[in-house]
Amino acid sequence: MPSPAAYTCSKTFRGYPCCHRQWRHPGHCRFVHGYSRGFTFWFAANQLDACGFVVDFSSLRPLEAQLAAQFDHTFLANADDPLLEHWRALHEAGALDLRVMENVGMEASAALVWEWANALLLERDGGRTCCWKTEARENSRNAACYEAVPPWFQP
Questions:
Q1: Of all residues in the chain, what percent carry a pLDDT higher than 90?
Q2: Strand, coil or helix: 11
Q3: Does the structural domain 7-147 have CATH classification 3.40.50.2020?
């Protein structure tokens, strides 16, 4: 998908070690395993702000905090994982920091953080900017992307 606007920029956040499992997978992905996740966001605008930016990267600290709270040293479990009560018990015992998600996969993670970025931008910029693409990376070889233009974006 080409950029929806004249100006674009991107920002990458890295270093979120967490673990998960794809319990439905017939192979080794059904076992608990971990990565140091990273996320790249692509932003767009047709008009730059007063400083000449699409997005002032320093204004993304709330997004960075949200990423850290969800993915930094956490255990991600699907909401329908048959072992969820065991994971909850381990969380209560202090053995892991549980985050329950609809889908812990990288594709779903890319869509989730796209939603977070656009919620922040809509509230702050009122439609001047949007996040039109995200990449969720589990390592240097594997990543998944989500691309969409939010309906409220004013191209």
A1: 95
A2: strand
A3: no
